[in-house]
User: Which sequence fits this backbone?
C-alpha cells in the first residue's frame, strides 16, 4: 500500500535532540551516526485516544537494541516519554498518529565508524505524523522475495536497528510485482516475516506463526498470541515453509502501523477462499478492543 500525503502533516513540529522545530527547518548533523553509518535503533508507536499501546514494551526493545550495539548512554524511559509528550503537545495530537522514535549513537567528533568518535551522547528523534493504518482491511497480497533475512550470527534480528536495506529491496520486488508486501525467508529457507510485518496462518485449525530466529520479537505479534490463547484458539510457533502458507485456511500479518491485516493471496495463489477468514476477523476485533482501552496515557 502506498501511503498518501496527509495535509495535516504540512506544518509538523518535530523533535531532534529535544529541539522542537518545524519539519522544514529540522536538522540532523552530517556527523551523526545515523547519517554516517545507519548506526541507530528505532521503534514505531501508535497513538489512539491519547494512549500508546505497548509503550513500555517498545521502550524495552529500544533499550535492548541500544545495549546490544554498545551505546555508551541511553536516555531513561521517563525522559523519552516526556519528549514524546512534548512533541504531541506541540502538534496538538491525540488520535490517529504514528510516532517514529529513533535513537542514534550521536554526533561524532570526526567522520568514521569507530564508536570511540562519539563523545557527546546519543541523539533522540521523535517524529509524530497523522497516518491512517497502512493496509486495506479487505485484504492484501504478498509475493516471495529473493532477499533473505540474515542469520543471527550475521546481523541479529533481535537488534531493532536502522539498517533497513534488505526490507527496502524486498519491498521494491513487491512493488514491481504489483503486490502489497513481500514474504522474506530466513537463511535456512523457512518463512521469517514480510518486509514490514509478522505472518500468521491457520493450519488445520491451529494458529501458526514463524519463530523469531530471523526476525524481531514483535509487540503486536506477542499481543495476538496472547489474545488467541485467551480466546481458546490453539497456537503454535515454529518453522514453516511456503507450501504451508499456500495451503493455509487463513493468513494475516501483524504490525504496529497496520494492526492485523488479512492476506488473501501469496505469489498469485489465493489463501483459503481469497477473503478475510473468521479467525482473522475475530482476532482483529479483539485487538481493536484491547488497544482502545489499554496503553500509556501521554495526552
Assistant:
Amino acid at each position: 500500500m502506498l501511503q498518501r500525503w496527509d495535509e495535516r502533516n504540512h506544518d509538523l513540529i518535530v523533535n531532534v535532540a529535544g529541539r522542537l522545530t518545524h519539519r522544514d527547518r529540522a536538522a540532523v548533523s552530517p556527523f551523526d551516526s545515523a547519517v554516517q553509518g545507519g548506526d541507530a535503533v528505532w521503534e514505531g508507536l501508535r497513538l489512539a485516544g491519547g494512549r500508546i499501546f505497548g509503550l513500555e514494551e517498545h521502550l524495552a526493545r529500544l533499550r535492548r537494541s541500544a545495549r546490544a550495539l554498545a551505546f555508551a548512554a541511553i536516555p531513561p524511559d521517563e525522559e523519552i516519554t516526556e519528549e514524546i509528550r512534548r512533541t504531541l503537545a506541540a502538534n496538538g495530537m491525540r488520535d490517529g498518529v504514528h510516532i517514529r522514535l529513533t535513537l542514534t549513537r550521536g554526533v561524532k567528533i570526526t567522520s568514521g565508524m569507530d564508536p570511540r568518535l562519539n563523545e557527546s551522547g546519543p541523539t533522540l528523534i521523535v517524529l509524530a505524523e497523522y497516518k491512517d493504518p497502512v493496509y486495506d482491511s479487505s485484504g492484501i497480497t504478498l509475493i516471495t522475495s529473493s532477499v533473505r533475512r540474515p542469520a543471527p550470527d550475521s546481523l541479529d534480528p533481535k537488534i531493532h536497528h536502522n539498517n533497513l536495506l534488505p526490507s527496502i529491496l524486498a519491498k521494491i520486488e513487491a512493488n514491481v510485482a504489483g503486490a502489497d508486501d513481500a514474504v522474506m525467508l530466513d537463511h535456512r529457507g523457512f518463512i521469517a516475516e514480510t518486509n514490514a510485518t509478522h505472518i500468521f496462518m491457520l493450519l488445520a485449525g491451529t494458529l501458526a506463526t514463524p519463530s523469531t530466529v530471523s526476525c524481531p520479537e514483535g509487540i503486536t505479534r506477542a499481543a495476538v498470541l496472547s489474545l488467541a490463547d485467551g480466546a481458546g484458539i490453539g497456537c503454535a510457533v515454529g518453522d514453516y515453509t511456503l507450501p504451508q502458507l499456500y495451503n493455509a485456511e487463513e493468513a494475516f500479518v501483524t504490525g504496529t502501523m497496520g494492526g492485523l491485516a488479512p492476506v488473501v493471496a501469496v505469489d498469485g495463489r489465493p489463501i483459503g477462499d481469497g477473503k478475510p477468514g473468521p479467525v482473522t476477523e475475530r482476532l482483529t476485533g479483539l485487538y481493536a478492543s484491547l488497544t482502545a482501552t489499554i496503553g500509556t496515557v501521554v495526552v
About this structure: The longest helix spans residues 278-293.
